[in-house]
């Protein structure tokens, strides 16, 4: 799997350099206007997903802080990541954010702009700090359905902010090529995307990365009819739906049913799930938990699942 990761993020190995002086970049991001007069030099990313997008664009030398690492950093990005100050294990406080003197803040989750984190985007804007939020996590009117085109639009936004459009197009091209290789690579199957929990399992519903990956591969998300992206399920209903394959999120946070190994152990011991055909025949596919959220890792989820279904 490391080979796939390196291939997809090779562009992150070298620092990106801006082109000649550019006009101000003006965006409307989640309802707020953003104007970036000059490419930022002191950016902060609030979670690993945003961090890895920045590093994949070669922007490590423009970062003065990162936070909220959820998984081991992608191998190709580790050298660049090691040079970025870690401001907090989870979210830094607004005082810590201001102490870093950023000229741009980037988050993929609304929670990063809570009062006990970086603070509202409007407050940062009032201090002259543009704050970008993923289109899939807007406070209001977020894009209801994840799409890879939307993800690539976000990558292009960040590339334009930092005046590295060519690097952005290169990264998008790499990701599109990998998606095309994975597309329809396996027979149609019903997939249960099992994220976390044992007494109450959280599974992938409609509109998230797992739904998009399932469609891309010609498969069906077993809970695509759920209105939430991550609904709380129950094992009896899961047994009734009897998925062909179970996709396991491998989470490193150490909670109940987080790791893929603990999930498999539970599924094999639980009286209801142990009788599932997928469990009895070990039809499991394991993906990094963070690849189920919008990021440069989402393409990796498609590749891993395609390879697992093709066995």
TrEMBL record:
<feature type="domain" description="Fe/B12 periplasmic-binding">
    <location>
        <begin position="42"/>
        <end position="311"/>
    </location>
</feature>
<comment type="similarity">
    <text>Belongs to the bacterial solute-binding protein 8 family.</text>
</comment>
<dbReference type="Pfam" id="PF01497">
    <property type="entry name" value="Peripla_BP_2"/>
</dbReference>
<protein>
    <submittedName>
        <fullName>ABC transporter substrate-binding protein</fullName>
    </submittedName>
</protein>
<dbReference type="InterPro" id="IPR050902">
    <property type="entry name" value="ABC_Transporter_SBP"/>
</dbReference>
<dbReference type="InterPro" id="IPR002491">
    <property type="entry name" value="ABC_transptr_periplasmic_BD"/>
</dbReference>
């Amino acid at each position: 799997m490391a080979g796939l990761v390196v291939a997809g993020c090779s562009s992150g190995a070298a620092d990106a350099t801006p082109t000649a002086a550019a006009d101000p970049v003006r965006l409307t991001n989640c309802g707020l206007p953003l104007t970036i007069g000059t490419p930022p030099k002191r950016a902060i990313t609030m979670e690993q997903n945003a961090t890895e997008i920045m590093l994949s664009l070669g922007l490590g030398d423009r970062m003065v802080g990162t936070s909220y690492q959820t998984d081991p950093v992608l191998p190709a990005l580790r050298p660049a990541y090691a040079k970025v100050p870690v401001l907090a294990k989870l979210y830094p406080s607004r005082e810590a954010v201001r102490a870093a003197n950023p000229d741009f803040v980037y988050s993929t989750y609304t929670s990063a702009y809570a009062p006990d984190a970086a603070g509202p985007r409007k407050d940062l804007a009032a201090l002259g700090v543009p704050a970008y939020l993923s289109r899939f996590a807007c406070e209001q009117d977020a894009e209801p359905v994840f799409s890879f085109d939307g993800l690539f639009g976000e990558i292009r936004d960040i590339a334009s902010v930092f005046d590295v459009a060519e690097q952005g197009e290169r990264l998008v091209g790499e990701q599109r090529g990998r998606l095309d290789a994975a597309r329809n690579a396996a027979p149609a199957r019903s997939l249960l995307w099992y994220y976390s929990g044992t007494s109450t399992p959280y599974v992938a519903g409609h509109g998230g990365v797992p739904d998009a990956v399932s469609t891309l591969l010609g498969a069906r998300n077993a809970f695509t009819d759920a209105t939430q992206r991550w609904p709380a399920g129950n094992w009896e209903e899961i047994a009734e739906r009897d998925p062909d394959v179970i996709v396991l999120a491998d989470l490193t946070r150490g909670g109940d049913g987080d790791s893929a190994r603990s999930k498999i152990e539970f599924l094999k011991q639980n009286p209801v799930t142990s009788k599932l055909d997928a469990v009895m025949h070990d039809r499991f596919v394991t993906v990094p938990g963070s690849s189920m959220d919008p990021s440069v890792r989402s393409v990796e989820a498609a590749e891993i699942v395609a390879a697992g279904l093709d066995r």
